[in-house]
Please model this.
Amino acid sequence: MKASQIKVEHVSSEARSANDDAITLSICDLADAIADAAGARIPISIALWKRETIAEYLGYTSVVVSRDIIIQPDFPDKIEIGTGRWKATEVIEWSLKKKRSTRSGRKRKA
Model:
């Protein structure tokens, strides 16, 4: 028998019913887990980001964020919780302003 072929056997209606119930239960469990995970997200409008989250968003390491980014005078103010948190919306707005104010690429030679 080739790997792509499937052998079909006769299954009693009782066994089929029990199997269908198990599959339905598994699907329901999976759906509940997905709903729980989706519902657990904090809306960006109230989210607080730590250095690692900022680094992931900006595409840098947390060392670069600590050393070069959060010390910039126009970077959003830190909220004193733990080692520091920043409002996600303020970090996003700051990054968009930076993107608009910087030129991409090098100047061409004349």
